[in-house]
Specification:
This is Calpain catalytic domain-containing protein. It comes from Anopheles maculatus. The chain has 186 residues and is mainly beta. It has a single domain, classed as Immunoglobulin-like (Sandwich), CATH 2.60.40. It is 9% helix and 31% strand. The strands form 2 sheets. Strands 1, 2, 3, 5, 7 and 10 form a 6-stranded antiparallel β-sheet that branches. Strands 8-4-6-9 form a 4-stranded antiparallel β-sheet, with no helix packed on it.
Amino acid sequence: MLETDLYMLVCLAFNHWHTGIDDFMQYPQCVLAIHSSKRLLVEQITPPPFLLADAIINLTLAKGQRHEGREGMTAYYLTKGWAGLVVMVENRHENKWIHVKCDCQESYNVVSTRGELKTVDSVPPLQRQVIIVLTQLEGSGGFSIAHRLTHRLANSGGLHDWGPPSSTHYPPIENVSELHSPRMIT
């Protein structure tokens, strides 16, 4: 039951992200059904570029488990009520980067929005980043999630010995930047 207000509904599906479909207009279509006993005004809008990242960040802040990894860094894990895992990292340092390795390679029957089960990222000062989203791949079978987060402080954004030369994210986030790009802490 929702109170009278303004709401934005975001449909989420992740299994199609790494199928080789580059044109988002070719992604599988969805149908959103809204039922109400009272009149509603509904309009479809063109979403802002980082709506997906901001929605997942806000969901993880509200419903996820908070873990203080080190001074100035907090990791959030969303697992309850989610057939998978969301890992989001917040860097509250004003002039230090946080390098984060997320290893989920021991997980079973899941798909990653990053296309890999092991990622390395450099989270800039005063920013948050959705590191990885794992969702159940095959609905009829069971799944298991295993994750290990390793992190360190750095004076620059490059991953140095943790990744390819001059990289800040591995695997690269170009194709999934609307979800995995660092976002300013607001």
